[in-house]
Model the fold of this input.
Amino acid sequence: MIEELLEFAEHSFTLNAADKDGVSLKDHLEIIQEQTGVTPKELEDVPFPVLVQHIWSAFVSLSDSRSAGFSGPNALTYTEIKAWMELTNEHLSPRDIEAIKKLDTAYLRKQHE
Done:
């Protein structure tokens, strides 16, 4: 399930990453779709693994409050994850936390391309 979540996340990160003009790949592809009537392959959905929705929700919540430096967004730390769990009264297993760290690595890789 984690691999499917990573595949979904990487697809989402790729589509939503903004170019130098602040326009996402998704926006560009939707314009192509509108003009040609053909859906580009990249817009095809990657299935979301519902059984690990709690991990994705935690990642999105944590990511929304991440800090940033001169080179862009910073990595999520174990301290931030622990604080989030305490503040939200949510429980994540060590496996869930490792999955969040993998999602974060994929996110940061896409941000720094």
About this structure: The two ends are 26 Å apart (CA to CA). Strands lie at 68-69, 72-73. Residues 94-111 form the longest helix (18 residues).
